[in-house]
């Protein structure tokens, strides 16, 4: 079932992200758009947490979760090339891997059975190892849960 509140959060997240990315078109005049764009990540995390909370606890390995994770992985891979083109000097990956790892940790908290907790600990270990390469680091991975 669709939630209009959750849809609003998603649209606000996308809007603030697009506004942030507009600064790449006119860097001298629009540097302040960076500030507006800082709202996008927390809003995407709220959307992720809301989606996780809508699933039934204990149903970690569902088709919906697999599809959700697959789409995030696909967008992580697809968006890396444009991110590299716009942010040549960045030493981090785009934000999608951080959101993807955050989703997995949120699942592990929500589905707090043994398999979920093991998956969460493994994911947090990966996030800690990749801390310097992840946008917002391992702390960003902890935001959705």
TrEMBL record:
Keyword DNA damage: no
InterPro entries xref list: TraX
Keywords: Membrane, Transmembrane, Transmembrane helix
Name this polypeptide is given: TraX protein
Transmembrane regions: 32-53, 65-86, 92-109, 116-136
Organism whose genome encodes this protein: Ectopseudomonas composti
């Amino acid at each position: 079932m669709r939630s209009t509140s959750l849809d609003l959060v998603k649209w606000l997240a996308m809007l603030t992200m697009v506004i942030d990315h507009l600064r790449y078109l006119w860097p001298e005049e629009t540097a302040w758009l960076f500030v507006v764009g800082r709202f996008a990540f927390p809003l995407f995390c709220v959307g992720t947490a809301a989606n996780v909370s809508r699933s039934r606890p204990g149903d970690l390995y569902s088709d919906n979760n697999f599809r959700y994770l697959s789409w995030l992985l696909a967008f992580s891979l697809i968006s890396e090339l444009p991110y590299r083109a716009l942010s040549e000097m960045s030493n981090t990956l785009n934000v999608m891997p951080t959101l993807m790892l955050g989703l997995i940790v949120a699942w592990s908290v929500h589905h707090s059975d043994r398999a979920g907790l093991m998956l969460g600990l493994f994911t947090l270990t990966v996030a800690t190892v990749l801390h310097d390469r992840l946008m917002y680091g391992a702390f960003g991975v902890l935001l959705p849960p």
